[in-house]
Amino acid sequence: MTISTATSATAPEPLVPRGLTGVVPPVCTPLTPDLEVDVASLLRLVDFQLDGGVDGLFVLGSSSEVAFLPDRHRAVVVDAVMRHVAGQVPVLVGVIDMTTLRVLDHADRAVRAGCAGIVATAPFYTRTHPAEVELHLRRIAERCDAPLYAYDLPVSVHTKLDPQMILRLAADGVLAGLKDSTGDDAALRDLLVARRDAGLTSFSVLTGSELTVDSALRMGADGVVPGLGNVDPHGYAKLYGHACAGDWEGAGREQERLLRLMRIVQAGSPTRMGRGSSALGAFKTALRLRGVIDHAVTAPPQIPLDDAEVDLVRNTLVATGLL
Protein backbone atom coordinates (compact mmCIF):
# COMPACT_ATOMS: atom_id res chain seq x y z
CA MET A 1 0.00 0.00 0.00
CA THR A 2 1.30 3.45 -0.90
CA ILE A 3 1.11 5.80 2.06
CA SER A 4 0.71 9.52 1.52
CA THR A 5 3.48 11.69 2.89
CA ALA A 6 1.40 14.87 2.94
CA THR A 7 1.01 16.52 6.35
CA SER A 8 -0.80 19.56 7.64
CA ALA A 9 0.99 22.32 9.53
CA THR A 10 -0.59 21.27 12.83
CA ALA A 11 -0.53 17.50 12.27
CA PRO A 12 0.27 15.34 15.30
CA GLU A 13 2.87 12.63 15.20
CA PRO A 14 2.07 9.70 12.85
CA LEU A 15 0.50 6.57 14.27
CA VAL A 16 2.81 4.18 16.10
CA PRO A 17 2.53 0.65 14.68
CA ARG A 18 1.61 -2.10 17.13
CA GLY A 19 0.56 -5.68 16.36
CA LEU A 20 -2.05 -6.16 13.65
CA THR A 21 -2.66 -2.80 12.00
CA GLY A 22 -4.29 -1.23 8.96
CA VAL A 23 -7.32 -2.11 6.87
CA VAL A 24 -8.67 -5.64 7.40
CA PRO A 25 -12.03 -5.99 5.61
CA PRO A 26 -14.51 -8.69 6.66
CA VAL A 27 -14.84 -10.37 3.27
CA CYS A 28 -18.35 -11.01 1.91
CA THR A 29 -19.22 -14.59 0.95
CA PRO A 30 -20.57 -14.63 -2.64
CA LEU A 31 -23.26 -17.24 -3.23
CA THR A 32 -24.63 -18.86 -6.35
CA PRO A 33 -28.37 -18.80 -7.12
CA ASP A 34 -28.60 -22.32 -5.66
CA LEU A 35 -26.97 -21.07 -2.42
CA GLU A 36 -23.55 -22.66 -2.76
CA VAL A 37 -20.35 -20.70 -2.22
CA ASP A 38 -19.40 -18.99 -5.49
CA VAL A 39 -15.68 -19.70 -5.23
CA ALA A 40 -14.74 -17.93 -8.46
CA SER A 41 -16.45 -14.73 -7.29
CA LEU A 42 -14.95 -15.11 -3.82
CA LEU A 43 -11.42 -15.25 -5.22
CA ARG A 44 -12.08 -12.25 -7.48
CA LEU A 45 -13.27 -10.39 -4.40
CA VAL A 46 -10.10 -11.36 -2.53
CA ASP A 47 -7.98 -10.08 -5.42
CA PHE A 48 -10.04 -6.88 -5.48
CA GLN A 49 -9.22 -6.39 -1.80
CA LEU A 50 -5.53 -7.09 -2.28
CA ASP A 51 -5.36 -4.75 -5.27
CA GLY A 52 -7.05 -2.13 -3.09
CA GLY A 53 -4.11 -2.14 -0.69
CA VAL A 54 -5.62 -3.85 2.34
CA ASP A 55 -3.34 -5.04 5.13
CA GLY A 56 -5.19 -8.23 5.99
CA LEU A 57 -8.44 -10.13 5.42
CA PHE A 58 -11.10 -11.35 7.83
CA VAL A 59 -13.24 -14.20 6.54
CA LEU A 60 -16.37 -15.51 8.24
CA GLY A 61 -17.27 -12.31 10.02
CA SER A 62 -20.62 -10.55 10.14
CA SER A 63 -20.30 -9.16 6.60
CA SER A 64 -19.40 -12.69 5.51
CA GLU A 65 -22.84 -13.85 6.69
CA VAL A 66 -21.13 -16.26 9.07
CA ALA A 67 -24.29 -16.71 11.14
CA PHE A 68 -26.17 -17.90 8.03
CA LEU A 69 -23.61 -20.36 6.66
CA PRO A 70 -23.53 -24.12 7.31
CA ASP A 71 -20.23 -25.66 8.36
CA ARG A 72 -19.51 -26.98 4.87
CA HIS A 73 -19.75 -23.45 3.44
CA ARG A 74 -17.40 -22.19 6.15
CA ALA A 75 -14.87 -24.87 5.23
CA VAL A 76 -15.04 -23.98 1.53
CA VAL A 77 -14.43 -20.30 2.28
CA VAL A 78 -11.46 -20.90 4.57
CA ASP A 79 -9.76 -23.44 2.31
CA ALA A 80 -10.25 -21.39 -0.86
CA VAL A 81 -9.07 -18.10 0.63
CA MET A 82 -6.08 -19.55 2.45
CA ARG A 83 -4.84 -21.32 -0.69
CA HIS A 84 -5.37 -18.23 -2.84
CA VAL A 85 -3.82 -15.65 -0.53
CA ALA A 86 -0.82 -17.89 0.18
CA GLY A 87 0.69 -15.59 2.77
CA GLN A 88 0.38 -12.29 0.89
CA VAL A 89 -1.44 -10.75 3.89
CA PRO A 90 -2.59 -12.13 7.26
CA VAL A 91 -5.95 -13.91 7.09
CA LEU A 92 -8.10 -13.94 10.21
CA VAL A 93 -10.89 -16.51 10.44
CA GLY A 94 -14.10 -16.00 12.38
CA VAL A 95 -14.91 -18.95 14.63
CA ILE A 96 -18.17 -17.39 15.77
CA ASP A 97 -20.75 -19.73 17.27
CA MET A 98 -23.06 -20.11 20.25
CA THR A 99 -20.97 -22.17 22.66
CA THR A 100 -17.37 -22.97 23.49
CA LEU A 101 -17.35 -26.52 22.11
CA ARG A 102 -18.76 -25.41 18.77
CA VAL A 103 -16.26 -22.55 18.57
CA LEU A 104 -13.39 -24.94 19.33
CA ASP A 105 -14.37 -27.13 16.39
CA HIS A 106 -14.29 -24.12 14.03
CA ALA A 107 -11.02 -22.92 15.54
CA ASP A 108 -9.30 -26.28 15.09
CA ARG A 109 -10.16 -26.26 11.38
CA ALA A 110 -9.03 -22.66 10.95
CA VAL A 111 -5.69 -23.32 12.62
CA ARG A 112 -5.10 -26.43 10.51
CA ALA A 113 -5.72 -24.31 7.41
CA GLY A 114 -2.91 -21.96 8.47
CA CYS A 115 -4.81 -18.82 9.49
CA ALA A 116 -2.95 -15.89 11.04
CA GLY A 117 -5.52 -15.57 13.81
CA ILE A 118 -9.00 -16.50 14.94
CA VAL A 119 -11.84 -14.16 15.90
CA ALA A 120 -14.48 -15.03 18.51
CA THR A 121 -17.44 -13.28 20.08
CA ALA A 122 -18.91 -13.97 23.48
CA PRO A 123 -21.19 -17.03 23.57
CA PHE A 124 -24.77 -16.28 22.60
CA TYR A 125 -28.34 -17.63 22.55
CA THR A 126 -28.10 -18.58 26.23
CA ARG A 127 -27.46 -15.88 28.81
CA THR A 128 -23.87 -15.89 30.04
CA HIS A 129 -22.22 -14.41 33.13
CA PRO A 130 -19.05 -12.31 32.65
CA ALA A 131 -17.06 -15.10 34.30
CA GLU A 132 -18.37 -17.53 31.67
CA VAL A 133 -17.42 -15.16 28.85
CA GLU A 134 -13.88 -14.99 30.24
CA LEU A 135 -13.71 -18.76 30.61
CA HIS A 136 -14.92 -19.11 27.01
CA LEU A 137 -12.10 -16.93 25.67
CA ARG A 138 -9.46 -18.56 27.88
CA ARG A 139 -10.50 -22.05 26.75
CA ILE A 140 -10.24 -21.04 23.09
CA ALA A 141 -6.78 -19.56 23.59
CA GLU A 142 -5.55 -22.60 25.52
CA ARG A 143 -6.74 -25.00 22.86
CA CYS A 144 -5.74 -23.16 19.68
CA ASP A 145 -2.24 -22.41 18.47
CA ALA A 146 -3.14 -19.11 16.80
CA PRO A 147 -3.58 -15.53 18.04
CA LEU A 148 -7.07 -14.91 19.37
CA TYR A 149 -8.96 -11.68 18.67
CA ALA A 150 -12.09 -10.83 20.63
CA TYR A 151 -15.03 -9.44 18.69
CA ASP A 152 -17.16 -7.04 20.73
CA LEU A 153 -20.54 -7.10 18.95
CA PRO A 154 -23.31 -6.45 21.49
CA VAL A 155 -25.95 -5.67 18.85
CA SER A 156 -25.83 -9.31 17.70
CA VAL A 157 -24.65 -11.40 20.66
CA HIS A 158 -26.36 -9.22 23.31
CA THR A 159 -23.26 -9.18 25.51
CA LYS A 160 -20.93 -6.22 25.88
CA LEU A 161 -17.38 -7.35 26.62
CA ASP A 162 -16.08 -5.96 29.88
CA PRO A 163 -13.10 -3.65 29.17
CA GLN A 164 -11.29 -4.70 32.34
CA MET A 165 -11.61 -8.32 31.28
CA ILE A 166 -10.26 -7.45 27.83
CA LEU A 167 -7.21 -5.75 29.32
CA ARG A 168 -6.69 -8.59 31.80
CA LEU A 169 -6.78 -11.18 29.03
CA ALA A 170 -4.43 -9.03 26.94
CA ALA A 171 -1.96 -8.79 29.84
CA ASP A 172 -2.17 -12.57 30.35
CA GLY A 173 -1.40 -13.20 26.67
CA VAL A 174 -4.84 -14.70 26.01
CA LEU A 175 -5.92 -12.03 23.53
CA ALA A 176 -3.86 -10.61 20.68
CA GLY A 177 -6.38 -7.92 19.86
CA LEU A 178 -9.93 -6.67 19.72
CA LYS A 179 -12.41 -5.76 17.01
CA ASP A 180 -14.63 -3.11 18.57
CA SER A 181 -18.04 -2.96 16.89
CA THR A 182 -19.89 -1.38 19.80
CA GLY A 183 -20.22 2.03 18.14
CA ASP A 184 -19.36 3.58 21.52
CA ASP A 185 -16.53 5.99 20.78
CA ALA A 186 -16.25 7.18 24.39
CA ALA A 187 -15.75 3.62 25.64
CA LEU A 188 -13.29 2.95 22.83
CA ARG A 189 -11.22 5.96 23.82
CA ASP A 190 -11.25 4.90 27.45
CA LEU A 191 -10.03 1.44 26.46
CA LEU A 192 -7.26 2.92 24.31
CA VAL A 193 -6.07 5.13 27.17
CA ALA A 194 -6.19 2.20 29.59
CA ARG A 195 -4.23 0.07 27.12
CA ARG A 196 -1.55 2.75 26.91
CA ASP A 197 -1.44 3.17 30.67
CA ALA A 198 -0.99 -0.60 31.07
CA GLY A 199 1.84 -0.69 28.51
CA LEU A 200 0.04 -3.24 26.33
CA THR A 201 1.68 -1.94 23.17
CA SER A 202 1.40 -5.20 21.19
CA PHE A 203 -2.36 -5.56 21.80
CA SER A 204 -4.20 -4.46 18.64
CA VAL A 205 -7.45 -2.51 18.80
CA LEU A 206 -9.34 -2.29 15.51
CA THR A 207 -12.56 -0.36 15.03
CA GLY A 208 -15.48 -1.92 13.23
CA SER A 209 -17.28 1.41 12.84
CA GLU A 210 -16.87 2.37 9.18
CA LEU A 211 -18.04 5.97 9.57
CA THR A 212 -15.72 7.15 12.36
CA VAL A 213 -12.45 5.56 11.33
CA ASP A 214 -10.53 8.83 11.18
CA SER A 215 -11.61 9.65 14.72
CA ALA A 216 -10.75 6.18 16.00
CA LEU A 217 -7.30 6.26 14.42
CA ARG A 218 -6.62 9.70 15.86
CA MET A 219 -7.57 8.38 19.30
CA GLY A 220 -5.00 5.61 18.89
CA ALA A 221 -6.82 2.67 17.28
CA ASP A 222 -4.56 0.49 15.13
CA GLY A 223 -6.84 -0.03 12.17
CA VAL A 224 -10.29 -0.79 10.88
CA VAL A 225 -12.37 -3.84 9.94
CA PRO A 226 -14.86 -2.18 7.56
CA GLY A 227 -17.77 -4.06 6.01
CA LEU A 228 -17.96 -1.24 3.47
CA GLY A 229 -14.35 -2.03 2.61
CA ASN A 230 -15.73 -4.86 0.48
CA VAL A 231 -17.14 -2.24 -1.87
CA ASP A 232 -14.29 0.29 -1.69
CA PRO A 233 -11.07 -1.13 -0.22
CA HIS A 234 -9.06 1.54 -2.03
CA GLY A 235 -10.92 4.25 -0.11
CA TYR A 236 -10.15 2.77 3.29
CA ALA A 237 -6.51 2.18 2.33
CA LYS A 238 -6.33 5.83 1.29
CA LEU A 239 -7.90 6.98 4.56
CA TYR A 240 -5.49 4.85 6.60
CA GLY A 241 -2.56 6.14 4.56
CA HIS A 242 -3.51 9.74 5.32
CA ALA A 243 -3.77 8.88 9.02
CA CYS A 244 -0.38 7.16 9.08
CA ALA A 245 1.14 10.31 7.58
CA GLY A 246 -0.59 12.55 10.10
CA ASP A 247 -2.71 14.12 7.36
CA TRP A 248 -5.94 14.27 9.34
CA GLU A 249 -7.56 16.73 6.97
CA GLY A 250 -7.08 14.29 4.11
CA ALA A 251 -8.31 11.42 6.27
CA GLY A 252 -11.43 13.43 7.11
CA ARG A 253 -12.20 14.16 3.47
CA GLU A 254 -11.94 10.50 2.55
CA GLN A 255 -14.02 9.50 5.57
CA GLU A 256 -16.80 11.84 4.47
CA ARG A 257 -16.79 10.37 0.95
CA LEU A 258 -17.07 6.90 2.47
CA LEU A 259 -19.89 8.13 4.71
CA ARG A 260 -21.84 9.13 1.60
CA LEU A 261 -21.11 5.72 0.07
CA MET A 262 -22.31 3.98 3.24
CA ARG A 263 -25.81 5.29 2.54
CA ILE A 264 -26.25 2.24 0.30
CA VAL A 265 -27.02 0.20 3.41
CA GLN A 266 -30.29 2.13 3.70
CA ALA A 267 -31.44 1.03 0.23
CA GLY A 268 -33.72 -1.74 1.47
CA SER A 269 -37.12 -0.59 2.68
CA PRO A 270 -37.57 -1.17 6.45
CA THR A 271 -41.22 -1.98 5.77
CA ARG A 272 -40.26 -5.26 4.10
CA MET A 273 -36.80 -6.27 5.36
CA GLY A 274 -34.43 -6.00 8.30
CA ARG A 275 -31.34 -3.80 8.50
CA GLY A 276 -29.07 -6.79 7.94
CA SER A 277 -30.82 -7.78 4.72
CA SER A 278 -30.55 -4.20 3.50
CA ALA A 279 -26.87 -3.77 4.37
CA LEU A 280 -25.56 -7.13 3.16
CA GLY A 281 -27.79 -6.99 0.09
CA ALA A 282 -26.42 -3.53 -0.69
CA PHE A 283 -22.79 -4.62 -0.29
CA LYS A 284 -23.30 -7.57 -2.61
CA THR A 285 -25.33 -5.53 -5.09
CA ALA A 286 -22.57 -2.93 -5.21
CA LEU A 287 -19.95 -5.63 -5.78
CA ARG A 288 -22.05 -7.10 -8.61
CA LEU A 289 -22.51 -3.68 -10.20
CA ARG A 290 -18.77 -3.10 -9.96
CA GLY A 291 -18.16 -6.41 -11.75
CA VAL A 292 -16.44 -8.11 -8.83
CA ILE A 293 -18.95 -10.88 -8.08
CA ASP A 294 -21.52 -12.59 -10.29
CA HIS A 295 -24.60 -12.56 -8.06
CA ALA A 296 -25.97 -10.45 -5.21
CA VAL A 297 -27.54 -13.50 -3.55
CA THR A 298 -27.77 -13.41 0.24
CA ALA A 299 -28.42 -16.42 2.45
CA PRO A 300 -31.98 -17.07 3.63
CA PRO A 301 -34.00 -15.89 5.38
CA GLN A 302 -32.60 -12.55 4.25
CA ILE A 303 -34.72 -10.71 1.69
CA PRO A 304 -33.12 -9.49 -1.57
CA LEU A 305 -33.24 -5.92 -2.82
CA ASP A 306 -35.81 -5.15 -5.50
CA ASP A 307 -35.14 -3.27 -8.73
CA ALA A 308 -35.84 0.17 -7.26
CA GLU A 309 -33.53 -0.52 -4.34
CA VAL A 310 -30.79 -1.75 -6.68
CA ASP A 311 -31.14 1.56 -8.54
CA LEU A 312 -30.53 3.42 -5.28
CA VAL A 313 -27.29 1.50 -4.82
CA ARG A 314 -26.28 2.17 -8.41
CA ASN A 315 -26.95 5.90 -8.09
CA THR A 316 -24.90 6.11 -4.90
CA LEU A 317 -21.97 4.35 -6.56
CA VAL A 318 -22.13 6.85 -9.40
CA ALA A 319 -22.32 9.81 -7.02
CA THR A 320 -19.26 8.63 -5.07
CA GLY A 321 -17.16 7.94 -8.15
CA LEU A 322 -17.25 4.14 -8.15
CA LEU A 323 -19.29 3.66 -11.33
Please state the average pLDDT score: 93
Distance between the termini: 23 Å
Number of strands: 9
The oligomeric state of the chains shown is single chain
> Order of strands across the biggest sheet?
1-9-8-7-6-5-4-3-2
Shape: globular
User: What order do the helices and strands follow?
Assistant: EEHEHEHEHEHHEHEHEHHHH
Stretches where pLDDT falls below 50 for ≥5 residues?
A: 1-17
Count of alpha and pi helical runs: 12
Strand content: 5-15%
Label the CATH architecture of one domain.
Alpha-Beta Barrel
Protein name: Dihydrodipicolinate synthase family protein
Keywords: Lyase, Schiff base
Family: Belongs to the DapA family.
GO molecular function: 4-hydroxy-tetrahydrodipicolinate synthase activity
Description:
The protein has 323 residues and is an alpha/beta fold. It has a domain of 226 residues: Aldolase class I (TIM Barrel), CATH 3.20.20. It contains twelve helices and nine strands. β4, α3 and β5 form a beta-alpha-beta unit. The relative contact order is 0.15.
